[in-house]
Every structure is written in structure tokens, then in C-alpha cells.
Amino acid sequence: MDCELYFHRIILFPDEELKLPRNDPTMDVLSTLFFVESAIDHVLRTQFFVFDLPMPVNLNLMERRIPHKKFFDPVIGKAIAHKCAMSTSLGIAQTYSFSVMDWLRLEFHCIRSYTQYYLDVIRSETKPVNLSLIHMLSFASFLISSTLERDNDHLINEIVWAVVHKLGERFPYEWIYESLHHWALTYNFRHNDIHETWMFQDSIEEGLDEVAGEITIGWQG
Hints:
- The chain is mostly helical and about 220 residues long.
- The protein has helices at about 30-50, 60-65, 75-80, 85-95, 100-105, 110-125, 130-150, 155-170, 175-220.
- It is globular and about 50 Å long.
């Protein structure tokens, strides 16, 4: 369904002299953690009605400490929480033999590395690359919702740090997170268009079925 989002990254700096190699600002651990926690908290609150999620670091504290590093916004959250993002990310993991029940039965010390493995699988299998962050965070939100359903809150920290590690490793630059708003906006717009088209087509088909039924009844009568 995401194949129509064909663009990758095109960043223009019209007011800056282009110097190569570029020295783009990188994300530090706290900024990445702030982004990840904000994203997961948004999904859990809006989709699963979970509030006061026990996170590694208090979100309010980070908002006060690094307000200038707030890369997350509700547009990004909407994309992460989208049912297509959830089903696609989980589908990719399941293609590579992921089972949530097997994952929950792992020894505690294996949770983080196992989670990182599947986050990397989702990243590498997501096309285009722009959607990798959305799918990875959607998968992480699914994992946390699964732990909460089974009262395994102690696994939340492991999941969050697994995501932070992978994002720091694979998406280290601030401009990536600054650009994510636009990727998410396009994703939301396109998927809304797709689903509205499906609903319109379904209503037409239902209408045609009703008309066909009336014609059949009239002919038989």
C-alpha cells in the first residue's frame, strides 16, 4: 500500500553555503529518547487509552529540559498509529518468524536484542526508506501494548531502549527527524485518500447490489 510514496530525501539549504563533506548535527541519546517516548506515549494514549505509561525518563522533565529538541508532533503520531502502519510492520516481522507469544516468553536479558533484531528487519524491509521510522515506532507501540495486556510492564524499558539504540544507529541526524513531519503528512494524506476511495467504491457496489436485487425481484414477480 505504501509503494505510491516513492520520494526519498531532498533537503535544500538556500541560506547556507553548501560545504562538503557536510557536518550535520546529530541526535544525542536524550533527544532520541525524548522523541521515542513522545511517539509511543501518543500512540498508547490515543489508540489504547493508556495514560501515565512508565517510561525510562519522565516526559514532562524532558520537555522542560530540552524543549528545543522536540521533533515529535501529532501528525507523526497519527501516521505511527495508523492501522496500516501497525499491520504492515507486524506483517514484516511475522514474515521473519516473529511471534509475540514467543517474544513474551524470552528470558529478560534477551528481550532487548531480540527486539532490536526485528526493528532492524522492519527498517530494512520498509520501502521507501522514509517510512522506516514510522513502521519501527508502530511495531514498538504494538509490543508495549502487548506487554500491558499481560501485565509485563517491566519490559517497557527494554523496548524503549531497543528503539533508541536502533534509531541512533540507523537515523543519527537531526534533519531526519525534522523532515519526518513532511513524510508523515504525506503518508496520512495518501492513506486517507486510499481509504476514502475504498469506502466510496464499497458504497457504489452496495448500491449496485441493491439495484440488482430490485431488478431481480421485479423480473421474478
